[in-house]
Predict the 3D structure of the following.
Amino acid sequence: MTWHAHAIWQALLGGPGCPLLPSGPTSYLGNLKGKVAAQNALLIPGDERARELHPILGEDAALMEAAAVLHDVGYSPLIASTGFHPLDGARFLRDQEGLDERVVRLVAHHSYALLEAEERGLREEMESEFEVERPALVDALVFCDMTTTPDGGHTTSGERVDEIVGWYGPDTIAGRFIQRAAPEIHGAVQRVQGGLGAVQESAQPM
């Protein structure tokens, strides 16, 4: 499943120097460029984080890796239609043969995207087209997304939220959304970290 996800990204990117990289100081351009560079090395930011969750996800681990690879695919101008990347990405992935529907739903709703959809007047469309996945998977993808920097480094959810507010500004659609979503994001990260901690503790010798 993870191989399929990488193949989808590679098809969109088309290799180094592809037209995915417009010029200009757009707020998420640096994030997209980082993903292009990472994909050329067969690593997408968030993918490594997803592998760390194997102990708590079990049979859903491969599903989460695929979702972590693909969650920002909607930034590609080759598939963007609404300009809202969770919705554009999920609509594109829905038409990809052989891709698990749960990955599509996770991409649509990653990091509480429904709150941003509301800011954009797209909440009804999102809710009607894509169901929300079960909470444990939603939390896991939030953890992958919001504790990973655009170039694949580790960070905290607080630092990540501050970074996004800094990119967009606090009074923009994205800035307002991420500030509204911050308590939910931090809660999801804490739940995942708690689950990982519990697994590690139980594995300690008595």
Remarks:
- DSSP finds twelve helices and no strands in the chain.
- The CA atoms of residues 119 and 156 lie 25 Å apart.
